[in-house]
Design a protein that fits this description.
Layout (H helix, E strand, L loop, with lengths): L9 E7 L6 H14 L4 E7 L6 H9 L5 E5 L6 H11 L4 E4 L10 H12 L3 E8 L5 H18 L7 E8 H8 L8 H8 L3 E7 L12 H15 L2 H29 L7 H34 L4 E2 L2 E2 L3 E2 L4 E2 L1
Parallel strand pairs: 1-2, 1-4, 2-3, 5-7
Antiparallel strand pairs: 4-6, 5-6, 8-11, 9-10
Helix pairs in contact: 5-8, 9-10
The chain binds uridine-5'-diphosphate (UDP) and magnesium ion.
The site of magnesium ion has 5 residues, from loops.
Subcellular location: Membrane
Organism: Knoellia aerolata DSM 18566
Protein name: Glucosyl transferase
């Protein structure tokens, strides 16, 4: 079941931003592997608005590599957006997304494909079993990140799975049907609920060039992950308001008792009560506002509340979103 008009089995989507240093190494390793799969494939190189020689190198490569397809984004739009662009355009029955820097060993693609076929699953996650080549900071921040998301957002995302994964056509169609912005695919995919499996791999060191993920982009990804899947931070104000309200009641009781016992200065009681009560009311009002903003946010994301996998009346239509 390919996309209409194509007979491509596998699409390999590779986001790249200023990857001139690593591109020749990537091609040298990936091309023999892809050719060796003995299946119709395409490589969808998504040039995320690179300002180095990446686009020139890609065009040159295309001359004698017919399976290479180049999609260039006008501006640097970020890793996740680049992957989304690739998924929208990929035509294969299966689609693999992989980083350009050879940190995700391309040899694993064959295993992912085999697992998907043998086990009949829609998603095969590449799970980093050994991250010893990453810096200690990256390992610890990543560990904290995955744990925080699992707790806050309650999604059953495999720990230590990044964006190296294989997806079936049905999964890709489902992702493409989501209208939401700033999606973090490593959490969106598990939330869709397609049958999945994992293969472990060792995360290698970047083969050349430098990381295109500075701290600012990492923080952006974390904020998008939490706010994309959880209203907990928004509800925080409601809880603060409730706590503040309780505290104000306590202060009120204390002030009244102090007044009765004659320990209070004139005017003190009313001042304290007013300050406490106003603060509590404000926080509560903010919380209520937050609840409504949250509902609007949900409606704006327009995420289907479920995907039907099968209906005995109609047969399988796995990619049909239901609102
Ligand atoms: N990337 C991209 N756009 C960006 C940043 C990164 O397409 O704005 C690509 C990059 O070329 C690479 C992948 O995303 O193929 C992962 O980036 P990188 O290896 O720099 O991240 P790290 O492994 O350091 O977290
Ligand atoms: Mg990398």
């Amino acid at each position: 079941m390919s996309a209409p008009g194509s007979a491509i089995t596998l699409s390999i989507v590779i986001p790249m931003f200023n990857e001139e240093a690593v591109l020749p190494l990537l091609v040298e390793r990936l091309r023999p592997l892809a050719d060796g799969l003995r299946t119709a494939y395409e490589v969808v190189a998504v040039d995320d608005g690179s300002s180095d020689a990446t686009p020139v190198l890609l065009q040159r490569l295309r001359r004698d590599w017919p399976e290479l397809r180049v999609v260039r984004l006008r501006a640097n739009s970020g890793h996740q957006a680049a992957i989304s662009a690739g998924l929208q355009r990929a035509r294969g029955d299966f689609v693999v997304t992989i980083d350009a820097d050879l940190q995700d060993p391309p040899e694993v693609i064959a295993e992912m494909l085999r697992v998907a076929r043998e086990q009949g699953v829609d998603v095969v996650y590449g799970v980093r079993e050994d991250r010893s080549t990453d810096t200690a900071f990256k390992r610890h921040s990543a560990g904290l990140f995955y744990r925080a998301i699992r707790r806050l957002a309650d999604i059953d995302a495999p720990v230590d799975a990044g964006d190296y994964r294989l997806m079936s056509r049905a999964t890709v169609d489902a992702i493409n049907s989501l209208p939401e912005h700033n999606r973090v695919l490593r959490f969106v995919v598990p939330a869709l609920g397609f049958p999945s499996a994992s293969v472990g791999y060792t995360r290698e060191v970047r083969a050349a060039g430098t990381s295109k993920y500075p701290l600012a982009k990492m923080l952006r990804l974390s904020v998008d992950s939490v706010t994309g899947f959880s209203l907990t931070p928004l509800r925080f104000a409601t809880w603060l308001g409730l706590l503040g309200g309780l505290a104000a009641l306590g202060v009120l009781a204390y002030a009244v008792i102090a007044r009765i016992l004659g320990h209070a200065l004139p005017g003190w009681t009313s001042t304290v009560v007013i300050v406490a009560a106003v603060g509590a009311v404000q926080l509560l009002a903010l919380g209520i506002l937050g609840e409504y903003v949250g509902r609007m946010y949900g409606a704006m994301q327009a995420r289907p509340t479920y995907f039907v996998a099968h209906d005995s009346l109609e047969g399988a239509h796995p990619a049909q979103p239901v609102h």
